[in-house]
Design goal:
Blueprint lengths: L4 E4 L18 E6 L7 E6 L6 E6 L7 E2 L7 E4 L17 E5 L3 E8 L6 E3 L4 E14 L2 E6 L2 E5 L5 E16 L27 E2 L10 E10 L5 E10 L4 E6 L4 E4 L18 E5 L2 E6 L2 E2 L19 E8 L14 E5 L11 H5 L4 E2 L2 E7 L4 E3 H5 L24
Parallel strand pairs: 9-15
Antiparallel strand pairs: 1-17, 2-3, 3-17, 4-16, 5-26, 6-23, 7-8, 7-26, 8-13, 10-11, 10-12, 10-13, 12-18, 14-18, 15-16, 19-20, 20-25, 21-24, 22-23, 22-25
Length: 403
């Protein structure tokens, strides 16, 4: 995020003496990505941020992955997973649904604070389906509520604190997530054709302090090959001891309600809805908007085969006209894989003609490598979905849908 912020106290020059009231030096920490050649921030701690007193293996949430074989479209009813997690916190309670080597998509229903947590594999983009809470981070705190995307950079120590029930979709990258490059100038400013800009982003406004010694932090990190490992550190001092920071790397919030839709005389393709990009995937936002204004235009999308991508849509509000009759509901996720030609449900095209606008709200993730299915996805699958275009309601292969 090439958008500079300064929060709290920082010295006039970087890498210079910055002393505490007792005369001791604050501990300067550079947090940066891509080997000192991209975005970074400098944080100033009361104690050295490297002081750990314990490191041990930890059994984090893991689920078996299976290929989408035989290949078919899927419909996941995430609200059927209510109560499936052994813990109801927003990190350890995530039900992993879909994954490949670039990204993992999970769903969580939580009403308890998470542990202090750090994802050392990649950035996280978390969408809030409903509820509200606070994300406490080493950079400061962020208030979050329905419709917010929360982008948390790799290795940011943070904690989720729900206020009541919090429902969220977590998109975990193997790498970094940010605005599409075509929305930005060569120096990183949002351009005029971008559907959102710097004014729409909410970052930490002041340092957030945490006290205590011997503080546990769970770290998710890479293992050999595709494996994911967890380690539990115990720090000598609380990581939230930052008095100030500045730079261009920090967590931020963007509300889907601030996404300004791009419309046209004829039906616009999905890239106009793009909100973020990650390694080999994109995130798009479908929001209320006016339909096409050509007199013979057809608002419903045409049948299409995305030959290079798997398409995931999380239905999170409003009326998604192209899926009427398919059992799609609040919290549904559809997976339309590469190799399957997909499109509106029967009757949706004709029914869309003459409509002036839509009030749909959905988050789409297009991946450029195939997605595997994980155990919770199979547990909440509507196995009749693949046959809805043909008017069938029963899946004759319901007991053998994965190879």
């Amino acid at each position: 995020m090439a958008y500079y912020r300064q929060v709290g106290e920082v010295p006039h020059k970087r890498h210079t003496q910055f002393r505490q009231p007792d005369g001791s030096l604050y501990a300067e920490e550079l947090m940066g990505v891509e080997g000192f050649s991209s975005d970074a921030s400098l944080l100033y701690h009361r104690h050295i941020p490297t002081a750990i007193v314990s490191s041990e293996a930890y059994d984090g949430p893991m689920f078996e992955r299976r290929p989408n074989h035989p290949l078919k479209p899927r419909h996941l009813k995430t609200h059927k997973l209510d109560g499936a997690a052994t813990t109801k916190d927003p990190v350890l309670g995530r039900q992993h649904l879909l994954a490949n080597g670039d990204v993992r998509i999970s769903y969580a229903v939580s009403d308890q604070p998470s542990p202090l947590y750090r994802n050392a594999i990649g950035d996280e983009c978390v969408y809030i389906e409903s509820g509200e809470g606070v994300v406490e981070t080493v950079f400061g705190s962020l208030e979050v509520s329905q419709g917010d995307y929360v982008v948390i950079p790799t290795s940011t120590t943070h904690r989720w604190v729900p206020r009541g029930e919090l429902r969220m979709l977590a998109i975990e990258a193997t790498g970094h997530i940010g605005p599409p490059r075509r929305y930005l100038s060569g120096k990183g400013q949002f351009l005029e054709h971008s559907p959102y800009c710097e004014r729409d982003l909410r970052g930490p406004a002041e340092p957030f302090s945490g006290d205590g010694t011997d503080v546990e932090v769970l770290v998710q990190h890479r293992g050999a090959g595709p494996s994911t490992l967890w380690t539990r550190y115990v720090y000598a001092h609380h990581p939230f001891d930052v008095v100030g920071w500045d730079g261009c790397l920090y967590p931020y919030v963007f509300s889907i309600h601030d996404f300004e839709p791009i419309t046209g005389r004829l039906h616009q393709p999905p890239p106009v809805h793009q909100t973020f990009e990650g390694p080999n995937f994109v995130v798009c936002s479908f929001v209320p908007r006016l339909f096409d204004y050509h007199p013979d235009g057809i608002p419903a999308p045409y049948n299409h085969a995305n030959v290079d991508s798997d398409e995931v849509i999380f239905y999170t509000g409003g009326d998604f006209m192209s899926r009427k009759g398919a059992g799609i509901e609040q919290g549904s996720i559809s997976l339309h894989p590469s190799g399957f030609t997909h499109g509106p449900q029967p009757g949706s095209v004709e029914a869309s003609i003459g409509k002036a606008a839509t009030d749909e709200l959905a988050v789409m993730v297009d991946t450029f490598r195939p997605l595997d299915l994980l155990d919770p996805a199979l547990a909440c699958e509507d196995t009749s979905y693949a046959w809805t275009w043909a008017g069938r309601s029963i899946d004759p292969d319901a007991d053998s849908t994965t190879g």
